[in-house]
User: Which sequence fits this backbone?
């Protein structure tokens, strides 16, 4: 598994190569994670795309097994991270949102937040950390990757779908005092045991912003299969009546 390499750092008009390495972070380093998250959030034009995790939430989560993979530059500064958690039967599990059979809930991994420092974007660090995390958890016996992505977050949605996660639900999540109705999120899923899909029995193109149409398709058993970034279209496909091939309830 690749854990280090060379990336391109971009500051204003300059661009230069730098070494980087990846490693799981210790709970004692959590303040560095929170600091990077805050910096990235403050620099986001649309704050709705990133739901911030508090220090306390991440601390408690790490105590119960969640992991954070850190990406560091050659000066050992944290430049990106990926946070993953293992919800088990907890009510916050996204497995409930996609009606995953109960027998699978212990094998679910949540891809929580990923952030990349603006100067280090464009190095596919979101994908690289996803692949690192997926390999790690698969060897530990986990099978299902689940995450939420904002329909407004084209960069993230594209990267997540490129890595084989499919849209299984579209709904409002994360209600808070500022946003009592919650925020629109796609819920994406990848069953790592599925090597390839059969030919779909039906397929349909929908505009990324067309939520009603997409919800209708999902209700009728379609899953969001591919994304066409340039024209903001999603390809929804249907694979017969069995949504979770062969998994017993
Ligand atoms: C989503 C995110 C992690 C992707 O970072 P990444 O892995 O570096 O992205 P990629 O390498 O796939 O970038 C591909 C291209 O899109 C550009 N890009 C990526 N994210 C961008 C952003 N937020 N704003 C503008 N351009 C962006 C890159 O510069 C690159 O451009 P290039 O092809 O001209 O080089 C990063 O944008 C980010 O930290 N966003 C804020 C936090 C967030 O939304 N996280 C995901 C939800 S938890």
Assistant:
């Amino acid at each position: 598994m690749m854990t280090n390499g060379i990336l391109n750092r971009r500051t204003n008009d300059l661009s230069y190569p730098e070494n980087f390495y990846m490693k799981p972070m210790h709970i004692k380093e959590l303040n560095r994670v929170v600091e990077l998250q805050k910096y990235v959030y403050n620099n986001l034009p649309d704050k709705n795309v990133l739901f911030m995790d508090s220090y306390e939430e991440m601390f408690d989560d790490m105590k119960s097994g969640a992991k954070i993979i850190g990406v560091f530059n050659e000066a050992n500064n944290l430049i990106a991270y990926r946070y993953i958690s293992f919800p088990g039967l907890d009510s916050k599990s996204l497995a409930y949102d996609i009606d995953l059979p109960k027998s699978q809930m212990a094998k679910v991994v949540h891809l929580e937040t990923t952030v990349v420092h603006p100067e280090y974007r464009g190095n596919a660090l979101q994908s690289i950390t996803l692949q690192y995390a997926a390999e790690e958890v698969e060897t530990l016996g986990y099978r299902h990757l689940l995450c939420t992505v904002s329909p407004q977050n084209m960069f993230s949605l594209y990267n997540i779908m490129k890595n084989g996660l499919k849209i299984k639900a579209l709904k409002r999540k994360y209600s808070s005092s500022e946003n009592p109705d919650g925020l629109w999120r796609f819920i994406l899923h990848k069953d790592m045991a599925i090597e390839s899909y059969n030919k779909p029995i039906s397929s349909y193109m929908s505009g990324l912003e067309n939520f009603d149409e997409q919800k209708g398709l999902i209700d009728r058993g379609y899953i969001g299969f591919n994304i066409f970034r340039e024209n903001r279209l999603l390809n929804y496909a249907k694979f017969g009546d069995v949504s979770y091939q062969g998994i017993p309830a």
